[in-house]
Amino acid sequence: MSTANDTGTQRPDERPRPTGLRAYSELGVCGLLLAVGILVLTDALTMETVASARGPVGPRTVPLVVGTALLVVAVLLAVDVLRGGRGEAEGGEDVDLAEPADWRTVALLAGVFLAFAALIDPLGFPVAGALLFWGSAFALGSRTHALTRDPLIAAGLSLLTYAVFHLLLGVQLPGGPLMGVM
Amino acid sequence: MDSVNSLIDGFGTALTPLNLLWAAVGVLLGTAIGVLPGIGPAMAVALLLPVTYGLDPTAAFIMFAGIYYGGMFGGSTTSILLNTPGESAAVIAAIEGNPMAKAGRGSQALAAAAIGHFAGGMIGTILLVVLAPTVANLAVDIGAPDYFAIMVLAFIAVTSVLGSSRVRGFASLLIGLTLGLVGLDQMTGQQRLTFGSLQLSDGIDVVIVAVGLFAIGEALWVAAHLRRGTGPSIPVGRPWLGRDELRRTWKPWLRGPLIGFPFGAIPAGGAEIPTFLSYITEKRLSKHRKEFGKGAIEGVAGPESAASASAAGTLVSMLTLGLPTTAVAAVMLAAFQQYGIQPGPLLFDREPELVWGLIASLFVGMVMLLVLNLPLAPVWSKLLRVPRPYLYAGILFFAAVGAYAVGGEAIDVVILLVIGLIGLMMRRYGLPVLPAIIGVILGPNAEQQLRRALQISDGSVTGLVNTPFAVTVYVVIAALLAWPLLKRLLPFHRRNSTPTSTQTPPPGA
């Protein structure tokens, strides 16, 4: 694991640094902070003041402070990045930072997730949940049992969760047409 | 003594069959989660927040506390056998424990860790029993300005003490505060950042934020960098200790809590710093200094004991002041909010059954954990072979269920994904997650206290600093903020700085 980079100080990094635009991809974070800051400020400034607002601090004050702080931090972060500071990517047990990032898998997972959101109401939780687990496992590289063991685990997990939420927690997940038949 | 009587009542609550069952579920889940790579206790509690819809608070918190302590026990198993610490607190266990396991002394390392956790947890919880009511009594008449000061302290401490970069910590905090602003203003009912959407006017549920940042963000980040072919886990037998090892470990077990407990109670990153300090202490005091780095049992016993004691310390600040000092505590605070319970000095008066039942269940859980972990360690280590696609698919599955269960609306699942993508970006660019979650949970509360304090003082800023308590807290905050400058003025610190080869990932993973 590499040592932490202090803000503003340059330290030699063991890993090869990406060059060109990618080296400054962190500026995207600054852009995001800037955009959010502007959004918060605009929202606060266009807020209609209500007569019921009591006390010296109204509903605007804190958003104004947060929005301004977002702008300041965005600028400070940009200065840090341009001076060579880098955010340290988070490590973990299953994280291999030596490999380049596999954004395809991330996009696939996001797609599976959105499909779940779209399907849960028409198909019901048991079906949509099983598809979510099966699809995620597939996206994460489970290939050898993709048509045998994986769908069974997915279906079992989904039905069990449905039952536990219904019986133990009293939360009714949508059953969908499948549960209507059963 | 008053607290002894309350504790006995607490055991009455904790020892009912149903609550024993929840404690058992908690420690089993906690150990499994600690052993499993990729899931930390904070993520586990976040994923389990939906149980708050069905369980009564006492049962839920007994389970959550079991997960917290169990995660510590299980985490050291992974570090020792696989050399890939999951929690930042378990890094030290890997440094000494893994060489021991490689040298065929894995059983002893596991035993030293498990008994260390037991000793640390017991001593820490006893300190909790003694200190918490006292702190609560001292703090019982603190008002709005004091609460506001404590929350500002939490904001500053998580951004300044933790992590390698302050500006990134503040960026994370502000993201959290912004998410907390969404919805109707609590005092005036004014819409903020809702963009006319009815969905957003209820605010973003804290369950969705916690699950999104901890579970989805983490799962996506791992997916982007999934390690192909994990290192082999070292097979071990039943943990045991010989007489010689006992002679070397009992003192570290007892010293660990003295370091761990106070650090857990202050917002300084939970178990990360105290495990490191305990390690250095044991190294200095050991007669076997040369063994350090190659598998010294003291280096497992002391830090592990410190880690568990720090968890108890964390509970002191959370229960008595409502101040979360670690990610787990922050998520537990979110659970309190789900129940509409405000942790703080009055909690001991208002919810004695809950608080003392929870504390008593910690003792019960600790005994369960020792029984579970000493003979069954070889069984737990089999969990390390779970296929990673199933593990992370399961995390995504339960996260989605949890978000949907909040309100039964599919749009919540989409919001969850968006927050998860923010969590992914934060991990990619080194923005710590803890400040964001603290910002979401404490932000709205802090705003309310601020406005209340200024209402009382009729708008004068002096209303924020008119109590000795608040002034003290602001002095501490000023010291925290000025610390980097002070450090530069003190030249000896540079010479003294310890090698940072043990730099750890930010907590909350």
From TrEMBL, chain A:
Keywords: Membrane, Transmembrane, Transmembrane helix
DUF1468 domain boundaries: 30-174
Ranges for region Disordered: 1-20
Membrane-crossing residue ranges in chain numbering: 21-41, 61-82, 153-173
This protein's record includes keyword Cell inner membrane: no
UniProt keyword annotation of Ribosomal protein present: no
Pfam families: TctB
Annotated InterPro entries: DUF1468
Biased composition range(s): Polar residues: 1-10
Protein name as annotated: Tripartite tricarboxylate transporter TctB family protein
Organism of derivation: Streptomyces smyrnaeus
From TrEMBL, chain B:
Keywords: Membrane, Transmembrane, Transmembrane helix
InterPro entries registered for this protein in UniProt: DUF112_TM
UniProt KW Transcription keyword: no
Superkingdom, taxonomy of origin: Bacteria
Keyword Nucleotidyltransferase applies: no
Domain (DUF112): residue spans on this chain: 20-438
Pfam families, sorted: TctA
Protein name per the record: Tripartite tricarboxylate transporter permease
Organism expressing this protein natively: Streptomyces smyrnaeus
